[in-house]
Amino acid sequence: MKLLMKNLRNEFPVLSQNTYLNTASSGLLYNTLLDYRQEHDLDFLIGGSIFRDSQQQFLRSVRKTIANFFGNSSENTILSPNFSIGFNTILNGFSKEQKVLLLEQDYPSINFSVTSKGFDVCYAQVDGSLEQNIEYVVQHHKPDIFAFSIIQYINGIAIDLNFIKQLKINHPNMLIIADATQFCGTQAFDFKTSGIDILGCSGYKWLLGGYGNGFMLFNDQILDQITPSPYHIETKNSNYDQSYTSLQSRFECGHLDMFNFGSLQHSLKYLSKIGISTVEHTITNLVDYTKEELTKLDLLDQDVLQRKKHSSIFNIKGDQKLFNHLKENNVITSLRGNGIRISLHFYNTEEDINKLLKLLHRYR
Length: 364
Prior knowledge:
Blueprint: H1 2-8, E1 19-20, H2 31-47, H3 55-70, E2 77-80, H4 83-91, E3 99-103, H5 108-115, E4 120-124, H6 130-141, E5 145-149, H7 161-170, E6 175-179, E7 198-202, E8 214-218, H8 222-225, H9 229-237, H10 242-245, H11 258-274, H12 276-296, H13 302-305, E9 313-317, H14 320-328, E10 331-332, E11 334-336, E12 339-343, H15 350-363
Parallel strand pairs: 1-10, 3-4, 3-5, 5-6, 6-7
Antiparallel strand pairs: 2-8, 7-8, 9-12, 11-12
């Protein structure tokens, strides 16, 4: 497996010049995806509008690829340029009287989108006892909707998905909406059995799909339930075709870019070829090694140390000066919150972490 991953690194030219620990900011472009994109544009160059004649059939195949990868049905899989557009479309159909549970300091695309629209909001604290905090707030505030990131973008704290499954059983009437942008592509996941009602994701991070593509997954009947009644009424009275009036077209309005969604489809097939279990195993081992080494240096918050399992994102104690020091030595990270965020994918290695550790020792 190590040999396989080492060979795969050759697909990513950035890695020949840099120690790239920044997938949480942007996944990498790789050689075979570049080949696909160049072929796509050549076909468009030669064919013009003729090339787009097959767009509906092609986009159906993209939905099917996404649905198969994440365990959903094609009809309940919707394409969106990114998570934020899909999420805001959902929120625009909700009554402002509904109460929404958010996590403190969650991604602005969730929290600001909700608060800026005037919803009644309650919060759960993100710390070592995240799940207990959520259960407490649900019991006491009884929210109608719970919207959250599966993995917190600043410190990498990951919500226990078994807890989410049980939460839905205990509170079946609470709508659960998850942003999986920092999660999808890191491990095997079956949407149908997750307890999540709506899951959205942008494809440019661990899915390696590049920018301008994403998707929303809906559980059975949910799409119908969240569609505003005026839309239902107008759909019945309209003579327009289904591409304008279906429940899906509320999200897929306007043109969808075959280049961007083709890139996502290509990358999902690429990850499937490697094997998502292989990807998960590689990331898990690297996360365990990284957590152990960073703990020795006292670089992780206590909230992270208290958790049994952690994601592929870490936030280490550091400032702009340390960030610059790492960048000068070709270690690519991000400044987030009060520290420096590093993030790991299957193309990272223990050697990458050892280089980081060596630079941290030298800096100290």
